[in-house]
Write a structure and sequence with these properties.
The structure is a homodimer of 241-residue chains. Chain A contains 6 helices and 10 strands. Helix content of chain A is 31%, strand content 28%. The radius of gyration of chain A is 20 Å and the shape is elongated. In chain A, the strands form 2 sheets. In chain A, strands 1, 2, 3, 4, 5, 6 and 7 form a 7-stranded mixed sheet that branches. Chain A has a 3-stranded antiparallel sheet with strand order 8-10-9. The first copy, chain A, starts with 8 loop residues before the first strand and ends with a strand. By secondary structure, the first copy, chain A, is α+β, with helices and mostly antiparallel strands. The interface between A and B is medium-sized, with 21 and 21 residues. Chain A binds a DNA duplex (30 and 30 nucleotides) through helix 6.
Amino acid sequence: MHSLTEQNYIQQLSIDCVIFGYENQQLKVLISTLKFKGDFQVLPSGFIYQGEDVDEAARRILEDRTSIKDTYLEQFHVFGKADRSNRAFLDRLIELNPDLVILHQQQRQQYEWFTRRFVSIGYYALVDMAKVIPQKHEIDQSITWYDVRQLPILAMDHNEIVQKAIDTLRLTLDQRLSAFSLLPESFTMKDVQEVYEAIYDKPFARNNFQKKILDMNVLERLEKKFTGAANKAPYLYRYIK
Amino acid sequence: MHSLTEQNYIQQLSIDCVIFGYENQQLKVLISTLKFKGDFQVLPSGFIYQGEDVDEAARRILEDRTSIKDTYLEQFHVFGKADRSNRAFLDRLIELNPDLVILHQQQRQQYEWFTRRFVSIGYYALVDMAKVIPQKHEIDQSITWYDVRQLPILAMDHNEIVQKAIDTLRLTLDQRLSAFSLLPESFTMKDVQEVYEAIYDKPFARNNFQKKILDMNVLERLEKKFTGAANKAPYLYRYIK
DNA sequence: ATTTATTGTCTATTTTTTAGACAATAATAA
DNA sequence: TTATTATTGTCTAAAAAATAGACAATAAAT
């Protein structure tokens, strides 16, 4: 990794990613926990290289954490308050981790660079959790999936950012047909319904839900899925286009 | 105005404003024409001061050009391609205006600053054109309202930006109840319908349109408007809340 | 008083959404 | 082999919403 103080990044502009997954009827968000004393938890974030599209940068950050290349990813809001800064967060981190005392000139510069006011572009991604390969050798942070209803307190305004991402997801889900990105290649109609129920945190009527989804004309019906349960086997479906 | 090369602005981050107005059944956009040889037309743009919210900056830019303080203003998209730069635009401008030869050190620096890659945050505003007071002493640019269907070719990706703003406006108009911001304090139902027709570029059925708007429960009915026409006088309405 | 153009609103029709019902079926139990 | 059970897929009925058609009210001109 290059030095942050070099001019390879756009200054004072960052990307925060709200990476959604789905498991056990729960909508999840990927959270980074910093490996320092104190519970410092943040959204996966990063900066934009000079020669890089902002969208590319978001995709790179997503791939860095999940190994996933092609999935639903979309910009949803810019967080631009004048007091948006890592300073309070980093000062607290240094306070709880005295071994991190800043001595060297370069560390001082990094600290200054990192604690300036930042404008952040929020992106949200929808991924198939089963395809996520957490990076093995993350030095300073580890990642965990949290149920969106039980998020920990995150650094800075990251809880707000997640909330805004959920709001946007709910408003655009049907238009963008993005729910299927949370599921594996093939799935049952019940799976789709449970994804919707997790996202909107409310139940849907099965008969009408099935009609609505089929009327979208984006699902191909595959073979039946025999689960061993003592009842009619559901069909599997696949998202097309 | 401070020097651009000073650190008072966030570097490589700009705001482009799509300022919508409405007149004569036409949806209009405010365009700046630079006072140089060659037709250089751009969206009203600006930068963000270090101590300023991004939203504040957008509002400042809007007020600078229109004198309007309180009106509908909303962020809608970030334009972040790696090749987004004023360089081609500025080179062409210098080419056509040889008197602008860059000699001084400071001019050189300004040129470098201004022609770097920029990430731009798009905002759109909806204003009552009658309330707009164009700035009298604009040195290097003048503003004009254009029908959105007859926009000139704008610099950089500004035509794309306008299109994206229109798309967003159409998608969110009913939710945000923002159409009324294009009209004066009081207006007839016909005015509202014509605003909608200008925005969506399609006709609406009068009877059902009136019902839909009244069902929003955001209009107060005022006295009648006697136009002198030989027919029933329409009621005036006022947007509340 | 009659005519004209437009407005406000009502009702009928069509379409869409929601609710209710039931046959099909995969395994299990009798 | 034949009920039983739980769930799925789909149909129809009912309710709600959107669209289309109709008409009385009315402000000014004839």
